[in-house]
């Protein structure tokens, strides 16, 4: 699956995230932000456009309704951040910490989560289209009643994740690890799994496998 990468110009000027804190319509675009700390804040309906953001901390901040387009995040900490009802397109999260992030009712398209921590994150009622999770931790992550279209989990830990009321048709989890998942048999139809995973699902369903 080909993911559209963020369309970023070269030689972006530097800015600070606090520059937009008191603006009526907070917006940052065509810039780079490095080593900024914006913890325990509230900045709803913010817009980020054509940016690189590196080594920043946003712990416990409310970014509900944020609009993100063409942004690269690297080594950022979003622990327990609220991004409810957000729109995120053509973005990359590399080596980021997104533990407990709330993406409920958000729309994500052309997104790549690479080598990132998403344990206990919530994607309930979210729409994910062309989203790739690779080499990432998603233990006990919640995808309740989400809509998937071309979503892959490559070499991830998805143990304990919930896909309740979420169709996994066309979703590839064949290279990922789990001991248990929360889902229904009907939602599993069309999901791409490995042979060992098929045996795991059979065991979870109470099927006795005889050599």
What would you say this structure looks like, in words?
InterPro entries: 5peptide_repeat, PA_immunity-related. Pfam families: Pentapeptide, Pentapeptide_4. This protein is mainly beta and 211 residues long. The chain has one domain: Pectate Lyase C-like. It contains two helices and seven strands; from the N terminus they run βββββββαα. A seven-stranded parallel β-sheet has the order 1-2-3-4-5-6-7, with no helix packed on it. The chain is elongated and about 65 Å long. 36% of the residues are buried.
Write the layout of secondary structure elements.
Elements: E1 27-34, E2 47-54, E3 67-74, E4 87-94, E5 107-114, E6 127-134, E7 147-154, H1 185-188, H2 195-204
Parallel strand pairs: 1-2, 2-3, 3-4, 4-5, 5-6, 6-7
The backbone outline, from C-alpha atoms, is elongated
Q: Let me know the average pLDDT.
A: 92
CATH arch. level architecture:
3 Solenoid
**CATH homology superfamily:** E3 ubiquitin-protein ligase SopA
Q: What characteristics describe this protein?
A:
single chain, 7-stranded parallel beta sheet, mainly beta, 5peptide_repeat, 27% strand, PA_immunity-related, 2 helices, elongated, Pectate Lyase C-like, 211 residues, 7 strands
Would you kindly provide a brief summary of this structure?
Helices cover 7% and strands 27% of the residues. The protein is mainly beta and 211 residues long. The protein has a single domain, classed as E3 ubiquitin-protein ligase SopA (Pectate Lyase C-like), CATH 2.160.20.80.
């Amino acid at each position: 699956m080909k993911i559209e990468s963020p369309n970023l110009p070269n030689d972006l000027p530097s800015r600070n995230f606090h520059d937009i804190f008191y603006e009526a319509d907070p917006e940052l675009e065509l810039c780079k932000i490095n080593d900024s700390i914006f913890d325990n804040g509230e900045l709803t309906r913010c817009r980020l456009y054509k940016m690189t953001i590196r080594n920043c901390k946003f712990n416990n901040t409310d970014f509900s309704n944020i609009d993100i387009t063409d942004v690269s995040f690297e080594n950022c900490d979003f622990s327990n951040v609220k991004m409810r009802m957000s729109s995120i397109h053509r973005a990359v999260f590399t080596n980021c910490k997104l533990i407990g992030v709330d993406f409920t009712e958000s729309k994500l398209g052309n997104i790549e989560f690479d080598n990132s921590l998403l344990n206990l994150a919530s994607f309930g009622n979210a729409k994910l289209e062309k989203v790739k999770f690779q080499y990432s931790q998603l233990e006990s992550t919640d995808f309740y009643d989400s809509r998937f279209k071309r979503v892959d989990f490559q070499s991830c830990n998805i143990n304990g994740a919930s896909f309740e009321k979420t169709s996994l048709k066309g979703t590839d989890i064949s290279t990922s690890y789990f001991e248990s998942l929360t889902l229904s048999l009907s939602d599993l139809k069309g999901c791409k799994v490995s042979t060992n995973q098929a045996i795991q699902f059979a065991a979870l369903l109470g099927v006795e496998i005889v050599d």
